[in-house]
Amino acid sequence: PLLTMRFVSLLLVIGLASAARLIVFGDSWGTEGAPALNKVMGSHNITIDNHAVAGSTAEFWSKVPNRLRDWVQKNKDAEYVWVTIGGGNDAAPMLQNGDSIQEIRTKVAGWVRTFMDPLFAAVPKIKVVSFGYDILFWSYFECVFEANSIFSRCGKEGQANFTSCANNLFYNIQGVVEELAAEYTAKGFSFEAPKLLGSLQAAGKVPNAKIGSPNDDYFSPNQYTGPARLCLHCNDEGFSIIFNNLWDLYFSKHEAAKKLVVEF
Fold first, then answer.
1. Interatomic CA distance for residues 242 and 40, integer angstroms
2. Which residue in 1, 15, 123, 232 has a CA-CA distance of 20 to 30 Å to 196?
3. Which of 172, 190, 191 is nearest to 180 (CA)?
4. Cβ contacts of residue 48 below 8 Å, gap of 6+?
5. Phi and psi angles of residue 63, each rounded to the nearest 5 degrees, phi first
């Protein structure tokens, strides 16, 4: 009987492991943000299967284009995919190499299509969400070197207009995601790009900042980021702010629509 109970428990664990409604795919925002994401989504009964890999790039995933499709197909409960990609590991090196903004946007979009096309072809009803991160705080002593390297075409951190220039370069990631969302939506698929830029600024009461409309002249408040996260990520408080906004702007409407259909 004890052995049987253990076997049943093992089956339940295996079942639970694959019974996730949200698949996380992409880079270190998926790994560093996992504790906060689990907490926020768990509070709304959205289970997670996280396949994000710290340091991974859109270019890397484009070389294994069926990986995302396979992970989603193996999880029969999957309804959503959060794709977090295209930031520090993709765009930053190309900025440092002097690639033009249009070259960067074209390359990243092309890499993303290589793994999104197989996913939608195999699972056309899956709902994909992606967003262009949020502004960070680059003025920590430990982060200045990295900021000057990534945003070298803006001059040096602390110089006039550096913050505004760096932020506007950063916004291009959201721009790529929005272009991809429009492209796949026109084909009849569900791909949305909620604009979460400004989430941390709004929480920190930066003047004139709103969710989706940040103030170009400021970085995000330093209490939500930090060099302990390699300057490229929020801390848990910052991630919680962003993921709660993601729930409000994206998941809540889909969950409400689903509930309405069930009740009807």
1. 10
2. 123
3. 191
4. 20, 21, 22, 23, 24, 37, 38, 41, 42
5. -85, -10
DSSP notation for 66-86: THHHHHHHH-TT--EEEEE-S
Q: Are 221 and 201 in contact (CB under 8 A)?
A: yes
Q: What is the rounded distance in angstroms from the CA atom of residue 89 to the CA atom of residue 54?
A: 9
Digits of tens for pLDDT over the chain (264 positions)?
A: 543 444 344 334 434 445 899 999 999 999 999 999 999 999 999 999 999 999 999 999 999 999 999 999 999 999 999 999 987 677 878 887 888 999 999 999 999 999 999 999 999 999 999 999 999 999 999 999 989 998 999 999 999 999 999 999 999 999 999 999 999 999 999 999 999 999 999 999 999 999 999 999 999 999 999 787 778 899 999 999 999 999 999 999 999 998 776 554
| Per-residue b or e along 108-132, where b marks 16 or more CB atoms closer than 10 Å to that residue's CB | bbebbbbbbebbbeebeebbbbbbb
In degrees to the nearest 10, what's the CA dihedral of 25, 75, 65, 250?
-40
d(CA 140, CA 250): 32
* Main-chain phi, psi angles of 56, to 5 degrees: -75, 160
**Can you give the pTM of this predicted structure?**
0.90
